[in-house]
Specification:
Length: 223
Amino acid sequence: MHITHAFDTVLTEYPESDGQPMAENTIQFRWITTIQGGIDALFSDRDDVFVAGDLFWYPIEGDNKTRVAPDVMVVFGRPRRDRGSYMQWREDGIAPQVVFEVISPGNTALEMIDKLEFYDTFGVEEYYLFDPQSMTLKAWQRNGERYLRLLKENPVRSPRLGLSFGIEGETLVITRPDGRQFETFVEMYHRAEKERERAEKEHERAEHLAAYLRAQGINPDSI
């Protein structure tokens, strides 16, 4: 996503869109939605964790040009509710603690350096940069006042999220604290369908057994 840096004392409107698409291709879109949806589901029982995708983050009040729209951002300590943008001064001054970017063919090296500087400057604790084309993952985690690039870790563990991110073959495997892995929506649908079919077969078997017992003069409810 496009980043601009400037201070404007006249304009005080904060646009909610830059007119650019959320993703440039289906691969990028699939990974953005998988990461955002998986993290949102992970913290679905908490009202103080806000998870968003492709949402403008404005860190400075009165400055509508210094902004960035992370592919995915996670904010602990803020209510789970809808927003048109994330204006930090209206959010108790809390910056997103975790940010993800999924690289697309249109992203330039200069743009990604600019984003890294932005996230470092405005206090992001953990920054993950995933390239689905080359299947590489880069990670930075804050160490005091500076970012520390994690060079050899695979998988990489997120202290904030409790997740691990590892490149395995031709995919990025994201593992929850309970050992379950993130799934795409299609994968979740197929798994749910299999569970439904299994439950139906179990019900049919139970019904057949109950009918057999009744035919033998046995009340199945008494067993």
